[in-house]
Amino acid sequence: MVDRVGAWRRRRVLAGMMGGAATLAAPGLLRAAPSGKPVRVGGTLSLTGFLAQTAMLHKIASEIMIEEINGRNGLLGRPVEYVLLDDQSKPEVARSLYEKLITVDKVDLIQGPYATAPILAAMGVAQRYGKVMIQSSMGIPKLQTYDRAFPATPFGSEPDVTYPNVILDAMATFPAPPKSMVILTSKFPSAQFMALGMKAQAEKRGVKVPLYLEYESGNRDFGAIAARIKEANADFLWVGSLGLESNLLLEALRKLDYKPKNHFHLYPAPGPLAVSADGDKALCSTFIEPDEPFMSRPGMKRIAAEYKEKAAKANLPYPTIDAQACGMVAEWQILEAAVNGAGSLEDEKIAAWLRKNRVDTIYGKARFDGPYNHGDAAQLIKQVQNKEWKVVWPKELAAPGVKLIAS
Amino acid sequence: MPSATLLGQALISGVLAGGLYGLLAMGLSLSWGLLRLVNLSHFALAFLAAYLVYELGTNYHVEPWWSAALIVPAMFAIGVAQHWLFDKFKVNELASLLITFSFAIILEVGIQLYWTADFRRYETEYATRSLKAGPFYIPILDLTLCLVAGALAWGTWLWLRCTYVGKALRAAAEDPGIAAAYGVDHKKLAYLLSGIGAAYAGIAGTFIALIATLAPAQIWAYLGVVFAVVIIGRLGNPLGALLAGLLIGASESIAMAVLAPAWAPVVSFSVLIAILLWDPEWL
Questions:
Q1: In B, which residues are within 8 Å of A47 by CB distance?
Q2: Nearest residue of A to residue B13 by CA position?
Q3: In chain A, N or C: fewer CB atoms in 10 Å?
């Protein structure tokens, strides 16, 4: 009897232990590792060529997100496999590679390439095969006319109107609001598009534009341009720059012993401008920065830390996550939500789901029911303060204790 | 109408920028004119030198002038080795385009593998220093570049004109058979010239590191304009290359000041076409 009681007790203890173990393991069981045939997602990045600087950021962000998605439940319970090809920064190569990804590699889904021109080239192919294409860097939303193309970055449908007004609103709070503005821009399509918008909106709000200049992308010498900017001597300098063009321009201005009163840069390489002697108080466009309140967004802290580690390992000189890398993070977040939400890999169903639903991304909640499948614009302004980029506008999203500083 | 100050400043900036065009064109012009080899890898060698100056300067705090003292002889050796390959495989003018293009691509990939595709900028305190002359500013670094290019162009021109080696090189380029009959060992001299061309790429690279943006794809940024400079300056003529560089630089800069910056790239080729149509005696 005693033995039987003892046996009964042992069985109860064992059952209790097993139950406890099962309870502890339950979330793991519910989030079972994805299994089965991988879902192949194809895409290109400009791993070589003149856009290659950004490709590494996107590649690292993709690696992080694929690990994240596969660490959850994959896509429809299947692991994700990323088929990445190099479009050499050439739209015609991107077009051929997307054709190959769809017809030869037979990928299940595609992701967009980087920059407006390759995206447009890939979009034509996606449209021909009815594939959903999510992209994060098409700076001219009105060109996204394909109904299954979706933006991952919150440009809004008219950034050439909305963003200049964000800048003009910020300028209006300066102790002496600028009354004149020099606009200088690269002829890179998305920069030129924004520059024309800036000019129109500035003039509409009574800010004079005494000098509007365009230069070829990859311009080598800024000496003569700097001399013209110095002569115009406006209250505000708006530069539609890419890469290190802003650094070269500011250096050329310094050689003429001229410092612009206030200066804004559209798409500069963030690291070099922040640490440059000429970069202090420079303003710049952004959507997110690794500071509060953005760090409190789900997953941001973890992704930012992983990014830092991987970027440092890849020998990137500026290993801090920025809006560029976050664009790719958002692409994968949208793809994961859409596929799992639609419960299908069929492009038609994924597109329909996206048009009806909102997705939580690193940029915040995204919707796709506006013109050209765009949702709300969420551009911010950041400023170099003590050699670091800090969001300064709008005030409610500014980094804690940080204010916009007018020169 | 732009002011006199603006025009003057644009002219100064353009002439100084033209110094780099001339410096880059010199090695290419010598190789094309005297060896009949169109060396596209010249640009990649210049950028390799620029990256090395950047690396030594940022990671080991070596002054660029000391870096140049190491890199320029190394570039000379690379030029000699490169010519050994050309010689071994009997590369002709047309094949040299393809082969040196391949060299350039390999170097570009190598640079990207080591330094990544990200932009690199070598920040130095003297990069933005200027001299003031009346209302004009003359950037010291750009002026130094121009003076170095001028000294090299004059020196090389005199060497080709006044020394036995120089005369022998020119003779061999004109008619290798006759030159050989007079005892000119063109093969040996070609090694020397190839080394000198690559060394000039090293000197140009040192200045590129100090005044320009470094990114692997930038290797090709100077290709078009420097080719125009080489042709305008006449093949094999270092002084002509420098003067053509200054002319193109000044023209581009004046176009930026008077018309629009976007017109600058059109200028170099417009000048080239105009000169080819003119077909002057010296060309």
A1: 117
A2: A223
A3: N
Q: Which of A215, A223, A243 lies at the smallest CB-CB distance from B119? A: A243
Q: Of the candidates A69, A72, A64, which has an alpha carbon nearest to the alpha carbon of residue A303? A: A64
Distance of CA B195 to the CA centre of its chain: 14
What is the mean pLDDT of the segment spanning B56-71? 95
Same domain, A262 and A385: yes
Which of A53, A248, A252 lies nearest to residue B118, judging by beta carbons? Answer: A53
Looking at the predicted structure, is the pLDDT value of residue A28 above 70?
no
For residue B268, tell me if it sits in a domain: yes
User: Which among B20, B10, B65 is positioned nearest to B47, based on CA atoms?
Assistant: B20
Interface check B118 vs A, CB under 8 A: yes
Please indicate whether, in this complex, the C-beta atoms of B17 and A220 are within 8 angstroms of each other.
yes
Is B283 contained in some domain?
no
List the CATH number of the domain containing A225: 3.40.50.2300
Nearest residue, CB atoms, A52 vs list B14, B117, B262: B117
Please indicate, yes or no, if residue A130 is contained in any of the structural domains: yes
Strand partners, A215: A186
Number of domain units in chain B: 1
Q: Is residue A26 predicted with pLDDT exceeding 60? A: no
Mean pLDDT of A390-396: 94
Indicate the pLDDT class of residue A24, thresholds 50, 70 and 90. very low
The pLDDT value recorded for residue A220 is 82
A321 and A359 within one domain: yes
The DSSP bridge partners found for residue A382 are: A284, A391
Give the closest-approach CA distance of A121 to chain B in angstroms: 21
Distance CA B22, CA B164 (A): 25
Q: What's the average model confidence in pLDDT over A221-231?
A: 95
Together in a domain, A130 and A44: yes
> Which among B130, B225, B254 has CB closest to A255?
B130
Q: Write out chain B residues lying below 8 Å of A56, CB-based.
A: 116-118
Residue B12 near chain A (CB below 8 Å): yes
* Helical H segments across A259-406, by residue range: 270-275, 300-313, 323-342, 347-356
**Rounded CA separation B68/B62 (Å):** 10
Band (B213; pLDDT cuts 50, 70, 90) = confident
Nearest residue on chain A to B249, alpha-carbon basis: A221
pTM for this entry? 0.86
Give the pLDDT of residue A30. Answer: 47
The 10s digit of each residue's pLDDT in A263-275 is 999 998 888 888 8
Q: Does B216 touch chain A (CB under 8 A)?
A: yes
